[in-house]
Amino acid sequence: MDRSVEIELIDDLLGLQAQTPPFLDEQWHRESLERYYSPDIFRREQAQISARLPQIIAHGSALPEPNAYLTTEVAGRPVLLTRNEDGAVQAFFNVCRHRSAKMVREHEGCEHRFRCPYHGWTWNNIGDLIGVPHEKTGFPGLDRSEFGLVPLPCQEYAGWIWLSLDSDSGIEVEHHLGDIRHDLLAMDAGSHKIFATETREIKANWNILVEGGIEAYHFRVAHKNNIADLFPDNLSSCHSYGPHLRSILPRTTLASLADQPREQWRLRDHANILYSFFPGAQFLVQSDHFVWIRGIPLGPDHTRLELSTLVPGSENTLAKQEYWRKNHAFTVLTLDEDFQLAEDIQSGLASGANSHLNFGRFEGALDTFNRIVDQAIA
């Protein structure tokens, strides 16, 4: 983060904290329930957002060496990532060109060629078809160059591997990020290592899960047994950068900065910074590490979340293992409370008790996010 921006954000937060009430929109908002359960809206989100926009699907360390591979899923479609012998990352549909079987079943590994488990058609890791059993008798005249694996736009940027399923538009990550790319670069993800990862299957719409992280109104009640005392009641700020959001969740220690020289101010020591990189990645940045939350929408009421704690590679020593383990466990414990509430909300939508959800004047970030989604699927 640019130093002048950091100072400006701390100034703003100190000013908000001194106000009573700290921050209010002009009016409160009502949100239709349909966006959280409509199969039609979910299909549009998958087509116009998940399948079209560039998104982070892996940390660069997931492909640590030439011939490493990784399989994943994007917008319901199987994807194969490979690092070729020149060190470049490539992406393909993980689909055999013969009968559309899933070609690679393993999640990760190191191979220079891939053999379909159905009939044995084989490709190298740059996508060329190199073997067809009984080719001359079964497929006379077959032109192997027409049956390479189907490539997908892919780019390694800022320590992350980005993918788009929109082969017509290609991929331009810097253009997609705009000005907020400077914050992402400053996180220096390439020098970090993934310490631990956990996966959650949540019976809730992906929008509800994003909304739960971009307001502090719930901290005092929902997290009363863990983080409530670490944060002021209902104080946060949010700025949008195109479709991306940067939310600041200050800690109670922020007030102490008012008496300190500005050159000693460091935002990460006195706040959690939550980046929501549209559409599928959130980063919870803390004082000495950060958590990557990858959201994978699977249905109108079903989302898979991958929670990964990333720590500085130079500090991932044996002596610090227990410290990182406790940090990871504490973060996951807190997030699990949010996930349970998201499932409760999802089940409550069908009760008929409400025709709308209600966002208070201090929950404006939720309305901002929903307008971003609406614009993307318009």
Automatic annotation (TrEMBL):
It holds the Pfam family Rieske. The keyword Oxidoreductase applies. Signal peptide: none annotated. GO terms for molecular function: 2 iron, 2 sulfur cluster binding; iron ion binding; oxidoreductase activity. InterPro entries: Rieske_2Fe-2S (IPR017941), Rieske_2Fe-2S_sf (IPR036922), Ring_hydroxy_dOase_asu_C_dom (IPR015879), Rng_hydr_dOase-A (IPR001663). Its cofactor is Fe cation. It comes from the Bacteria. The keyword Oxidoreductase applies. This is Ring-hydroxylating oxygenase subunit alpha.
